[in-house]
Amino acid sequence: MTPPIREFRRKGMHRLISARWSETGTVLEEVAPDNDRMLADAARLDAATNERIRGELNGLAGISQFELVYGIPNAHIVRAAFLHPGPFGARFSDTTRGAWYAADSVQTSIAEVSYHRARRLAEMVVPGLPGERPDEEASEYDDWQADFEAAFHALEPAEKYADCLKPEPVPKCYATSQALARQLLAAQSNGIIYPSVRRSGATCIACFRPALVHRPRRGERYEIRLVAVTGRRAEDTGEYRREVRVVRR
User: What is residue 100's predicted lDDT score, i.e. its pLDDT?
Assistant: First the structure.
């Protein structure tokens, strides 16, 4: 069932990105800081084996380099979203092509990111710890904001698309939603507006087109700390308490 198309105009949609990926430049500058020719040679060598650079030069199976954006502030952040789809993809993108996922508030983005991090922690085995699971973990994320003004397919009413919004089991529950995304991509869709699966009442977007991610800009940096719920085994419940603080404005 093809979702209806809706005009979507929203400024400052939020996407949390690990802080270590936010900076510009290249680590190769540390190898040859004062020698431009050496740096150029090292960059060409790096391009031969670096997946991100190969994607920017040649595209991926599901996206051409001609769709990617260049020459705008923070273009590298937008490109990375489409060139690093992850080993299982995500809800509305498979392993051949990423998407720009964003939410209507930073609280929604924190809920989405925290869920997936807690799930990964609960799957780890650490001998010697209670329940043989990590008792806590902290990571820093930058709040990247972007504006949208285009027509997107909308999962409305949500009840009709329940198979695309299943919370578990990840990644098996993505099968139907990824199939829908492939169908819509083939029909030249701009992306999908859908209700957040991890925060009731919130709205998310999966934008399929890099050029529609307008004015990407970095906001505050957050530390998200996950602490195992005491008195319970992480392997039984997967429950972690979330603690969030701003570490840089």
Answer: 98
Structural domain that includes position 103: 5-22+73-248
Three-state SS string over 5-63 comes to EEEEEEEEEEEEEEHHHCCCCCCHHHHCCCCHHHHHHHHHHHHHHCHHHHHHHHCECCE
- Give me the number of domains the chain comprises: 1
The answer to whether position 239 is within a domain reads yes
Spatial contact of 151 and 64, defined as CB atoms under 8 Å apart: no
Residue range 130-168, pLDDT digits in tens:
777 788 999 999 999 999 999 999 999 999 999 999 999
Establish if 56 belongs to a structural domain.
Answer: no
Record the pTM. 0.84
Q: Give the pairing type, strands 136-154 and 191-195.
A: parallel
77 belongs to a structural domain: yes
Q: Is residue 218 part of a domain?
A: yes
Backbone angles phi, psi at 202, to 5 degrees: -95, 160
Say which amino acid occupies 140: E
Residue 76 confidence (pLDDT) above 70: yes
Burial letters 40-70, b for 16+ CB under 10 A, else e: eebbeeeeeeeeebebbeebbebbeeeebbe
